[in-house]
Amino acid sequence: MSELDTQKRKDFATKLIFGIGIIILVIKFFAWFVTGSSAIYSDALESIVNVITAVTAFIAIRISSQPADKDHPYGHGKVEYFSAAFEGILIILAGLFIVYEAVFAFIDGIQVQEISNGLILILITAFMNGLLGMYLIRTGKQMRSDTLIASGYHVYSDSITSFGVFIGLICVKLTGILWIDPVIALFVAVHIIFQGSKLLRNSLMRLMDSADDDALSLISTCLRKNRRDEWIAPHRLRAWRGGSQLFIDFHLIMPWYFSLRQTHDAEHDIKNRFSETMNEHVELIIHTEPCFPEACRYCRMKNCSYRSEAQEVDSIWSKDMLMSIPEMPKPNKDIL
User: Fold this and answer.
1) What's the average model confidence in pLDDT over 24-28?
2) Would you tell me which of 129, 193, 223, 243 could form a disulfide with 95, CB atoms 3.0–4.6 Å apart?
3) How far lies 69's CA from each of 7, 75, 78, 152, in Å?
4) Which CATH number belongs to the domain containing residue 307 in this structure?
5) Which of 164, 186, 207 is at the close of a domain?
């Protein structure tokens, strides 16, 4: 898929969030107006966040699609993490406001009416959000967009919240116990605050270039499957994301007599393997290092004129091993 097609799909997804968000917001506030339910009111407040974040998501995706330039040599992808963090903060604030409203409902008196009409409306919004959330999560993963993934999980969480409100209101209707309504609102608030905190934490970790464990696992698998004898010891592997771009760097010990062209070709070969395995563009930097006599017992090179001893150890390239310094005798001058 071309970058233009990818951008069009992202734009369509953000417009869909905004359009459906407005419709759901209107339905929920109408349901609250009809019933006076604190639980429905709390659910409607979260939908306001959905609409606001749809606008920020649209802006963030537009900015992230811009190519690297003089001031941003690694691209603009990290703006998506700012968008997701902003969404997390808004979700937490909405949750705290719901707590305030629920407590105020206990103090001021609980009034719930026309529950049947509210049940139908809330159930409709729950299904709409559920379908939208699954679409956004799937699209976000395909497009490598943290903004869409974050919005998808938030919208899907909103769907679960609405189902919880629906079940709670049925309990109120069947039992006539009105205090169940603000209690549901409090549970909704706790759920919202938890989801917002989780989203905020993940966004901040991405902004701090936290390691991408999924990518590291794929990289280690790819290196094992495509292993070459001349790749003596890859190590100090790192991988992180900047929006939709995946950055990888590691050190690689190769035969000391290899030409610059040979090491360059090896780098291109590895990069192509990574891109095929992960089905995305990879920014790769490999720091090649010359081998040394002490590394011969770990080397698979069969026809090496400079071998000082036979191979005795055949290392398994696990993720943990690739991320560390190889456990082999060091040369007189430490080059690792």
Assistant:
1) 89
2) 193
3) 19, 7, 14, 30
4) 3.30.70.1350
5) 207
